[in-house]
Backbone:
């Protein structure tokens, strides 16, 4: 009797035990495969998030720390933004601008509430 024929006879004789063992091994293999897939997907998404979140910078003037800079002075110029945007490795950029105005000779007017 060869090894394979003895194994086949054992499997045919112990059908329930073989089926249970097959089911258990299938569940373990599927669980390990699922865990590996989830781990790889999580690593990939973490890399994508890190690229998007960490891969940028903000260029702004320090209005609070520089008392000698008059309002409107020392701002980031559009030419500077254009030069930075043309550097290698810069995929995209976004420009936001905040404005502060001084009202000279203005008086406060109370606006009635609408109901």
Residues:
């Amino acid at each position: 009797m060869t090894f394979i024929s003895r194994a086949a006879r054992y499997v045919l004789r112990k059908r329930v035990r073989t089926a249970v063992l097959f089911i258990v091994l299938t569940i373990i293999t599927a669980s390990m495969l699922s865990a590996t897939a989830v781990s790889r997907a999580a690593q990939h998404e973490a890399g994508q998030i890190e690229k998007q979140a960490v891969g940028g910078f903000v260029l702004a003037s320090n209005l609070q720390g520089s008392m000698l800079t008059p309002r409107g002075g020392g701002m980031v110029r559009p030419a500077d933004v254009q030069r930075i945007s043309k550097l290698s490795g810069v995929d995209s950029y976004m420009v936001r601008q905040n404005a502060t105005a001084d009202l000279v000779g203005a008086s406060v007017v109370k606006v009635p509430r609408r109901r």
Q: What stands out?
A: The CA atoms of residues 60 and 77 lie 10 Å apart. The two ends are 98 Å apart (CA to CA). Helices lie at 3-13, 15-54, 78-85.
